[in-house]
Amino acid sequence: MTTPVALTIAGSDSSGGAGIQADLKTFAALGVYGASAITALTAQNTKGVTGIHAVPAAFVTAQIDAVFSDLDVGAVKIGMVAQAESIDAIASALVHWKPRHIVLDPVMVATSGDRLLAAEAVEALRTKLMRLASVITPNLPEAAALLDEPIARSEIEIESQGRRLLELGCRAVLIKGGHGEGRESIDYLVGADKTIALAASRVATRNTHGTGCSLSSAVAAGLARGEDLEMAVRNAKAWISAAIEAADRFSVGHGHGPVHHFHKFY
After folding, report:
1. Is 50 a catalytic residue?
2. Engineering a disulfide at 140: which of 40, 130, 179, 216 sits with its beta carbon 3.0 to 4.6 angstroms away?
3. What pLDDT digit, counting tens, does each position of 45-80 carry?
């Protein structure tokens, strides 16, 4: 029996709630073997980011090459890329290795509000990585930033931004509604032929650290297991909603604590 494998290309979170650590926890929770290529080290906890040390682009390439040359990677998740040089390296490596599925989470700002992507690197992300993606997973502020527009406030505006993001080359867009308002958190999966609204009750908790990382990783896990995109997104939405609902079982740190990746087990 073939073991499903997913590769995360992202930054490390020293507090374990987001980034590479959250991605690997998500893969494990969903029955997928996780590999990693680290783009940056962060000094980070539940209260904020106090330092970022970028990994040299050539070593990002070396990690990606090492994984693909040995493991049968079913899906790739890209998170924090930190700098333009890393984006160039990642894009070149993925063009070379041609993975079946790429989930791009355009991480720009941490839950704490700290910036994780250099402003000058946004254009590189927009032009070099988005065109490779099976699906991109921006939240409402990230979708607006990618288009240099105000944050969408209505379903019509969200779908319109999703359509314009498709024009940048990705095959689908999942706009996450966690930063929205109302009793429900609604994500919108915008494809070439239809838009699907995925709603879940909004959970009153401050423990949301790593939510975006984990959702995109859950989508990648589903794709690695052989699910089609709609099923992978639906299952990921259900899983992350349960992980947020269970987050208050933890008492970790003094800021925005992590979601509960292993809520099915304890």
Report:
1. no
2. 179
3. 999 889 999 999 999 999 999 999 999 999 999 999
- pLDDT grade, residue 178 (50/70/90)? low
Q: Residue 102: which of 123, 69, 76 has the closest Cα?
A: 76
What single letter denotes the amino acid at residue 37? A
Q: Which of 42, 61, 211, 237 is catalytic?
A: 211
To the query of whether residue 213 is one of the catalytic residues in this protein, the response is yes
Cβ atoms 61, 108 nearer than 8 A: no
Which candidate in 208, 222, 237, 257 is catalytic? Answer: 208
Indicate if 137 belongs to the active site. no
Asked about 176 being catalytic, the answer comes back as: yes
Q: What is the pLDDT of residues 130-164, one digit of tens each?
A: 999 999 999 998 999 899 899 998 999 999 999 99
Q: In what order do the strands lie in the sheet with 5-13?
A: 48-54, 33-45, 5-13, 75-78, 102-104, 135-136, 173-175, 184-190, 195-201
In angstroms, the first-to-last Cα distance of the chain is 28
Of the candidates 176, 222, 237, 257, the residue annotated as catalytic is 176
Q: Round to whole Å and give the CA distance between 126 and 246.
A: 34
User: Is residue 48 among the annotated active site residues?
Assistant: no
Closest to 138 in 3D by CA, of 184, 193, 79: 79
Q: What is the DSSP code (8-state) at residue 227?
A: -
For 65, counting Cβ atoms within 10 Å of its Cβ (0-12 exposed, 13-18 middle, 19+ buried), the class is middle
Question: Catalytic residue at 212?
Answer: yes
